[in-house]
Amino acid sequence: MIRFSGDYFDGQSSRAHPVTATFADGQLQIEGESIALTVARAQVEVVPPAGTARGVIHLPGHQELHSSDHVALAELAKLGPGSSPERWARVLEGRVIYALGALVLSVLILFAGLRWGVPAGALLASRTLPDSVDRHIGEQSLRLMEKVSLEPSTLPAARQRAISQRLAALCQQRTTHTPCPTYRLLFRDSKLFGPNALALPGGTVIVTDALVKLAQHDDEVLAVIAHELGHVQQRHSLRLALQSIGAGVILVAVTGDIGSVTDIAAGLPSLLLQNGYSRDMEREADAYALAWLDTACIPPRRFADLLGRIDQDASDTHLMSSHPGTRERIQPFQRPAACP
Ligand SMILES: [Zn+2]
Question: How crowded is residue 179: how many other Cβ atoms within 10 Å of its Cβ?
Fold first, then answer.
């Protein structure tokens, strides 16, 4: 039994009624001058005293009982629903829900970081990093590929020279319209890559022998090179490299596995070759190529013709494979030259 004194407020007026309260058998009895009240413990809420403030017991109908008996109120609070197993279960359930909520939130933040944060960071970094970073990554990738998947070209030197010189001449005559970025053109043989072309960070454009052999006109090769120059101009491959490294950094932060970063960095050349570029990047490179071909008086359909042939060849190259909408994509190229 707990007994204490306090002031009762009836919830109607601000008048305090001195009372005596007794708690026994799950009932709180309040007695005073013309006051006799019995309330079940479950219906009262005890707010224990804090500092010098008096404790408050909330009763049904906005009635209140105020008391400075710290000991009694603390005991009453302990006997309340706060100590029942059901109450604890409710609290724990609440915590489990909080924990699950926090977990879901973490996963969402991680996903958003990978989905939007990393590409945005990579874009920003690709615009601000000095050219030397491009060149360094490009050289590393080229060295790796030359070890693994690239052989010296077997194309006649005259054919290589003809394409290189034509490209150089077209780039030199350009002024304000679609200027060529700094580039280096390399011909390489590759069983792995098939008819393909790719732009490395730093401006190295690799054209495979198979692509040149599949072309029925040098302008077709130049059209594909123009597309690659579009990737160079926008520093797409650097963005791709930074994205894969950025994703790796996040994965390491989460998993603590440093090995995954090296894996991703080593996998960069294959990233560049497979479905690495986003559709937006391909669209940008296409737009650049279209403008470039118009300025060069090369019929844009040369690009469409060669891509169509690669498609028939069913080769898995980045020029075709990553784009479900190939037909829609090459549509703008299916027209004659912009100049006579
Ligand atoms: Zn491309």
Answer: 12
